[in-house]
Amino acid sequence: MSTPTMPDSQLKDLEEKGFLDLKIDPSLNLVDEIHRLKKEKNAVILAHYYQHSEIQDVADYIGDSLGLSQQAASTEADIIVFAGVHFMAETAKILSPHKKVLLPDLKAGCSLADSCPAPLFKKFKALHPNAVVVSYINCTAELKTLTDICCTSTNAVHVINSIPKDKEIIFAPDRNLGAYLEKTTGRDLILWNGTCMVHELFSQEKIARLQVQYPEAKLIAHPECETHILDAADYIGSTSGLLKYTQTNASKQFIVATEPGIIHQMELASPNKLFIPAPPNNTCACNECPHMKLNTMEKLYLCMKHEQPEIVLPEEVIRDGRASIDRMLDISRTAGL
Ligand code: 13P
Ligand code: SF4
Fold first, then answer.
1. Architecture label for domain 8-109+291-313
2. Ligand 1 centroid vs 250 CA: distance in angstroms?
3. HEC per residue, 200-264
4. What is the DSSP pairing of strand 253-257 with strand 100-102?
5. 69, 260, 294, 302: which could join 108 in a potential S-S bond, CB 3.0 to 4.6 Å?
């Protein structure tokens, strides 16, 4: 039973069929074609805020990991086209197993999910047999089968607070979100040592320089960031929390410490405000998620046309992984999220 982030056998199969090499007629209007295919196939496009802005613009729903899961669970479409990364599309498949779930690029993985291989985690879990396992949704479907309750950055505090005080808790795979939860909830967590390759790269020094340059700007940060960035932040929240904050806060300038794809929706919602991406601690554009950015309009079009690549999961993974996601959705519903 294995559900790796990049299923090589599936990729090989697609390569052999020539799917990965397909050329597109350059005169095609991809936006029109994608809208046509949506209608023709009763498909819905769910896009994460970190997607390229042109993909966000053709999506039916744009959201954070929780919102996307809620949409995947409730959609009446026959096909879910997931403009996001592999673990998100897997979650959609677990929640809607009878629907076809497509991911434009199967190689769109996640460093957090990759940091926590299920066989290793199984051994770790065995060291703490009485602990409740809470996993950030950024993990493989196989890890979800070893998890009691999933969480996203929107509901993580509610999930931890729902667990009786006398219970030990393992939190995987993000050690930064875990440390933030320890601080916020006052609970000791047994942490897995994983990180997001994007959120661990922000430069405190460069952010401090920006704060001197823009003294009125609010620093807003995703809880996957390192503790020293979070300690300096005016607001910490999930992608949807950050977006809401920029809409409701009176400030006109924001330094945004998360993947800069979110800035597209921030600018659409508040065209008169300035959004400055927090810089990474090197000279490349490494604050962009290389996995999220693998999806392109061309791949989106091709995947809708050919209904490939499709997310396929073993039945037992769907069955055993589902409970941890359902518990998360129940807690979110009760909390009004
Ligand atoms: P949220 O959308 O839940 O804030 O998560 C951010 C993220 O890193 C997704 O990969
Ligand atoms: Fe994974 Fe980080 Fe990319 Fe999100 S931003 S998909 S957590 S690598």
1. 3-Layer(aba) Sandwich (3.40)
2. 25
3. CCECHHHHHHHHHHCCCCEEEECCCCCHHHHHHCCEECCHHHHHHHHHHCCCCEEEEECCHHHHH
4. unpaired
5. 294
Structure tokens at 65: 């990991």
Is the Cβ atom of 258 under 6 angstroms away from ligand 1? no
Please state, in angstroms and rounded to a whole number, the distance separating the CA atoms of residues 37 and 223.
37
- 44 near 66, Cβ under 8 Å? no
Fold of the 112-196+321-334 domain: Rossmann fold (3.40.50)
Ligand 1: distance of its center to the CA of 127 in Å?
29
Domain with CATH 3.40.50.10800 in the chain: 8-109+291-313, 112-196+321-334, 204-277
Paired residues of 275 in beta bridges: 254
Pocket test for ligand 1, best of 5, 46, 50 (most atoms within 8 A of CB): 50
| Distance between Cα 50 and ligand 2 center (Å) | 9
Place of tokens 């009786």: 164
Give per-residue pLDDT as tens, 90-149.
999 999 999 999 999 999 999 999 999 999 999 999 999 999 999 999 999 999 999 999
Share the mean pLDDT of the chain.
94
Residue 238's Cβ-side half-sphere holds a number of Cα atoms within 13 Å equal to: 20
Q: Residue 4's pLDDT is what?
A: 47
- Enter the tokens of residue 306: 């050919």
Domain 204-277 has CATH 3.40.50.10800: yes
Q: How far is CA 2 from CA 6, 56, 57, 315, 316, in A?
A: 11, 31, 34, 12, 11
Atom of ligand 1 nearest to the CA of 242: 4
For ligand 2, say whether the CB of 292 is within 6 Å of any of its atoms: yes
Is 3's pLDDT higher than 50? no
Residue nearest to atom 10 of ligand 1 (CA): 138
The encoded tokens of residue 39 equal 């209608």
